[in-house]
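Journal club side-thread
Mid-discussion, someone asked how the predicted structure for our own chain would compare to the paper's figures. Pasting it here so we can look after the session.
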Amino acid sequence: MRHGRLYRSGNPALACGADIERLQGWGLDAVVDFRSPGEKSADEAPFGERFNWIAMPVLEGSMTMDVLMPRLRESTPEQVDAFMLEVYRDFPVRYRQVFGEFMRNAQAGKTLLYHCTAGKDRTGFASLLLLSALGVGQGDILANYLESNQRNARFNTQALERIAQFGIRPEVMMPLLEVRGSYLEASMQAIEDGYGDMGRYLSEGLGVDVEGVRAHYLE
């Protein structure tokens, strides 16, 4: 893959000034935001003034804290794990149009940074699509996806400390904070069930010119 063309991250909008200057040096054509409006704050407005920040909301309304808190208080770890599996099964079906729009931005050859809140679920599925289109093997895609557990370790520890005051047990929260191989496999199974394989999903489901994407991002 060509260096410096595709980036995935957690929410970059609250980065410090030096980090934003660094981001500007990357020559980003677009920053794609998979969060819903309820996940954003007014403090992020200056970021939008510096970048071409495109809203492509996925899971609108279902990942806000006022929705999640009551669910987490009443759930077991197994129920939260099942919830996440359902979320991942929905990505390629319910949000097909959004991810198709995302892939068309890649097809146009843009230098992209794409993100959600933690850079792991919606962004992880977007990476599955991009890397599959670029011919990356499933083992490498999964390894890249699972890196979020290391990258987000400090974020997760802080989240567990904050969430404890609301009476939510760590073992209930962890399926929401972690990425798990079974989650991404749920998305891939939904694609296989609906389209047979990833190639057909990209071309027929999303209308992606795979060769065009490869021409932009492969050496």
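Post-session note: The chain has a mean pLDDT of 94.
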